[in-house]
């Protein structure tokens, strides 16, 4: 009898948590599904502790589970690479923050500029940096000799290495079906039915905006094809490594026939579309959160005195004082309109040096009595996992920036959503919230910024208005669909393990 040979899988992801969280959740599910799996996790420095925690948790359930092997990729992270590119190419930014085009109110000219500033996400490094990272990943793949490599769909260097080596690989994405299915829709619907990048258009695109949407979609493709930075990097890789540059666009145009793309959603949570056979909706893939009673029992007690409006605009979104003040004034309107005002938990990451809860600060001038009475908490950090907060049953609505993880966590928890979309695919998730009837966009008139009057009315409508009951019912229904389907991470794990055996 042949000796038992455990499956060996290599996970390759960027270190940025929006993408890495999906890989961490899937890693945990892989070990729980098959404790004999030999799992390797390759990324940039910074995820050593979370990966070790996944191993430790898995071994509590399966003591014979193997420890996950961590491989550190040398070179700049994607975020640092983008910052370097933007600085070297004099892309207008707010200090060391996002391009100004991402932060300006949407209009046609702003959208064109934002599209141009988004293209470097596909190739986030200069020639030398890209070559270093691709070489390192090639070495890792060759040393691990995995049965299957699982790649982050936004990780250009890893895609380049996998294509070059011809290894068996699959892709894992925190994003939705549309990103991978729109180009293959009948009647070229990807051009006119689905909102173009940075357009902010609704779904389906209104008839009078279809010509603009077609132009923006074609403009995006034209800008990518003609991008001189991409051409320079591709030429350098070809000359120095004899490697062909591959980007996420290759998954749409030059995908190997056997490569599957696993996405963190269900058809019921996305724009209606025809789903290609190679795109596999697994359901929302989120990390299992420690119960809030364990991670922050004091906060659990505070939330229980709710109901609570929970505001968390993600790890990237920094708020200048004027924007934070507009949000505070919107909350003031909400608090004043209720006989029994809600509590507010607001995770705020300031842009610039300004006080928030100190007496005499502008925000304290607006919300001072509630801040002093601990009815409104404004903090820069929350110990408890966001998902565990949403799962308490005390959250009236989740106010977020439209990120995939924020959307999915609120969906799983059955919590109504108010979305303040900030950039790229955030606008799509905002549209999904309205399309599905599980919340509203809080800044339609001035996105990505917001105004007090509009936002306060949306908060009132979602949390207390005549449609609030219907919104909550729909959110609860979608959550039940997800729970009936089962864990997205577990589904992803089963698919990947089966791929190893094919």
From TrEMBL:
- A GO CC term attached to the entry: endoplasmic reticulum
The Erythromycin biosynthesis protein CIII-like C-terminal domain extends over: 374-472
Q: Which Pfam families match?
A: EryCIII-like_C
The UniProt keyword set, sorted, is: Transferase
What one GO molecular function would you report for this record? UDP-glycosyltransferase activity
Q: Does Transferase count among this protein's keywords?
A: yes
Name it: Glycosyltransferase sdnJ
Q: Kindly indicate whether the keyword Transferase belongs to this entry.
A: yes
InterPro entries cross-referenced by the UniProt entry: EryCIII-like_C (IPR010610), Glycosyltransferase_28 (IPR050426), UDP_glucos_trans (IPR002213)
Source species of the chain: Passalora fulva (Tomato leaf mold)
């Amino acid at each position: 009898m042949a000796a038992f040979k455990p499956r060996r899988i290599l996970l390759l992801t960027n270190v940025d948590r929006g993408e890495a969280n999906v890989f961490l959740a899937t890693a945990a599910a892989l070990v729980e599904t098959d404790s004999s799996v030999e799992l390797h996790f390759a990324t940039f420095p910074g995820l050593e502790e979370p990966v070790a925690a996944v191993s430790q948790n898995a071994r509590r359930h399966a003591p014979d589970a193997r420890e996950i092997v961590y491989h550190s990729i040398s070179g700049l992270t994607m975020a640092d690479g983008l910052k370097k590119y933007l600085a070297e190419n004099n892309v207008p930014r707010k200090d060391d923050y996002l391009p100004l085009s991402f932060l300006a109110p949407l209009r046609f000219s702003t959208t064109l500029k934002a599209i141009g500033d988004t293209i470097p996400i596909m190739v986030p490094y200069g020639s030398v940096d890209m070559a270093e990272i691709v070489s390192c990943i090639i070495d890792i793949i060759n040393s691990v000799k995995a049965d299957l490599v699982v790649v982050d769909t936004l990780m250009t260097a890893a895609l380049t290495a996998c294509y070059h080596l011809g290894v068996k690989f699959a892709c894992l994405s925190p994003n939705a079906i549309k990103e991978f299915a729109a180009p293959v829709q009948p009647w070229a619907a990807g051009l006119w039915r689905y909102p173009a990048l940075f357009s902010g258009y609704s779904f389906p695109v209104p008839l009078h905006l279809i010509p603009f949407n077609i132009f923006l979609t074609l403009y995006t493709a034209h800008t990518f094809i003609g991008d001189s930075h991409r051409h320079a990097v591709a030429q350098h890789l070809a000359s120095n490594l004899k490697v062909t540059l591959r980007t996420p666009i290759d998954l749409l145009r030059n995908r190997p026939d056997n490569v599957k793309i696993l996405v963190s959603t269900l058809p019921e949570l996305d724009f209606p579309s025809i789903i290609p056979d190679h795109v596999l909706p697994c359901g929302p893939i989120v990390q299992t959160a420690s119960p809030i009673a364990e991670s922050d029992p004091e906060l659990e007690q505070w939330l229980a005195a709710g109901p609570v409006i929970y505001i968390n605009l993600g790890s990237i979104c920094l708020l200048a004082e004027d924007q934070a003040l507009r949000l505070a004034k919107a909350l003031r309107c909400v608090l004043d309109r209720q006989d029994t005002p809600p509590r507010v938990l607001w995770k705020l990451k300031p842009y610039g040096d300004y006080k928030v809860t100190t007496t005499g600060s502008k925000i304290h001038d607006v919300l001072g009595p509630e801040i002093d009475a601990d009815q409104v908490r404004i903090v820069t950090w929350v110990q408890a996992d966001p998902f565990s907060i949403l799962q308490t049953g005390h959250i009236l609505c989740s106010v977020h920036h439209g990120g995939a993880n924020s959307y999915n966590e609120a969906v799983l928890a059955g919590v109504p959503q108010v979305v303040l979309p900030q950039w790229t695919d955030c606008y799509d998730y905002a549209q999904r919230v309205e399309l599905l009837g599980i919340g509203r966009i809080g800044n339609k008139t001035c996105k990505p910024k917001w105004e007090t009057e509009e936002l306060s009315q949306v908060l009132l409508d979602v949390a207390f208005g005549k449609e609030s009951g219907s919104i909550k019912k729909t959110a609860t229904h979608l959550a039940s669909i997800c729970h009936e389907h089962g864990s997205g991470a577990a589904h992803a794990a089963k698919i990947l393990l089966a791929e190893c055996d094919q």
